[in-house]
Amino acid sequence: MPGLFPSQDVLAATFGHRFPYFQKSKLNGTEASNLYPIMSVSEKAHQLSEEASNELAKASLAAQRKVGGIELYSAKYYTACTFGGLLACGFTHTAVTPLDLVKCRRQVDANLYKGNMEAWKLIGKAEGFRGIMTGWSPTFFGYSAQGSFKYGGYEFFKKFYSDLLGPENAYKYKTWVYLAGSASAEFFADIALCPFEAVKVRMQTTIPPAFTGTFQGISAITAKEGVVGLYKGVNPLWARQIPYTMMKFASFERTVEFIYDYYLPGKKSDYGKAAQTGVSFLGGYIAGILCAIVSHPADVMVSKLNANRAPNEAFGAAMGRIYKEIGFKGLWNGLPVRIVMIGTLTGLQWLIYDSFKIFLGLPSTGGTEKPPQMMSGKPSQPSS
User: In whole angstroms, what is the distance from residue 91 CA to residue 189 CA?
Assistant: First the structure.
């Protein structure tokens, strides 16, 4: 006797499969991706991502073949690191010019704007987008030069000090190696940066800007004050940048080591390119926050000195006068903005730098492993 209700087979034939989760999503020959556009977009995005990854891998192999292989710590290696530093610093610092502009102006006059949004609104209304990007040109040239010396120099000096100590002591005192290597590199990097920084600060802290461009600014300063005018901020620049860079590189190296040692199973070499560059970005962001705090008082003083120091005023006298005007609290003007700016900036710099190294077939920075003699328990041979 037939049942009162239709069977499952009848229902399936009328409305679809009796187990819909096990059926390929089709309706009258139409793919589910056509019925649900979001599925189509997701599939296309995944396909494009795979294609982009494949093209990047091909470009990487082609670049490695073209340069003929790069031996670690060779002249070609340091050249690659120098160029990687240029890419990492020049473009990232230029990208945050609007933040830097407001920071510098608020350091010079804390009452000029109530906040970033108000500042950009007022500047944009008065000067347009070009006004918001005031100082981008000396920023690009200056920080490209600085990044070259900073990263290339760090790789050189880190190897130099490690060789002086020998493998076992270099690993045992690696934090001191990071600090010494970064300090040495930054000393020379700041000499390259200083002329451009002098132009940038004067452009950003005067309304309207004192100069129309980088080289016009350099010419105007040297005509009025001589070459020394371009370097009158070098001492506070060293005071700001050397501690900043020591914190940047040492904290990055130790953070990356900590992530690989305690949060990720296995060794650094077990992870692919995407994972390693992700660790680089995270380590860089954390390092950037620490950098901003350590170097901020000197950053404020650099802005004040470049904007307000008289042509023949002594360095110590100028610092003393400025400190009396702003006090200890004034040294911390603009810190929240700088934390956001430097954290993001440093994370992106390490991401770009290590991505470039990996692109050329070089290992990413950080995650130092013990030398073989320490892992085997055998004493190291005396270094020659």
Answer: 17
